[in-house]
Amino acid sequence: MNLKHAATIVTTGGALAAWFAGSVTSNRTVAPPPAITRPPIDVRSAELATEVSRLHDRLQPSTAPRQPARNLFRFRPVPQAHAVVSAAAAQLPPEAPAPPPVVPMRLVGMAEDPGPDGPLRVAFISAEGQLFNVKEGETFLQKYRVTKISADVVELTDAIDGSIRRLALR
To answer: What's the CA gap between 17 and 122, in Å, rounded?
Structure first.
């Protein structure tokens, strides 16, 4: 490369750099931003906002309220009537414990598959928010044993007292 080529490249590069620098900078002076004057309505709303905040602070209770003398949501207790226990009532034997409540159950469906000894049936029983799939001889709810499943009735035996309960398909 000769000296003439190098001088041309340096001169052209310098001219381009000066041109870019001139385009980025300006010789104009920037005017200061205009002063914003608020109209009278904005001034009044600012005054109103300060007054409202002052009133809110003033309305805050400085002391906690006392416990009210009476509670409007609680009724007076009913006086206990003193019952006279007669001698006959004292001689009565204690009552037997109440039987356990009956669990609400519903037979919701049946399924049947052919088997070598006849149809194999499965009953779908809804109890206590669950769905049980039971076959003959199975126990569910730790209390009921399935003794027989026919085409539309399931027979359950209570394991505790031996009572029989039948659920029919509706």
So the answer is: 92
Strand, helix or coil for residue 58? helix
How large is the C-alpha radius of gyration of the chain?
47
Cα distance between residue 89 and residue 162, in whole Å: 33
Burial class of residue 90, CB neighbours in 10 A (0-12, 13-18, 19+):
exposed
Nearest to 125 by CA among 101, 158, 154: 154
Architecture of domain 105-168: Roll (2.30)
Q: Are 154 and 107 in contact (CB under 8 A)?
A: yes
**Averages of pLDDT over each 10 residues, the chain, 170 residues:** 89 91 76 82 84 86 67 75 61 71 89 89 93 93 92 91 90
Identify which of 151, 141, 147 has the alpha carbon closest to the alpha carbon of residue 165: 147
The predicted structure's pLDDT at residue 153: 94
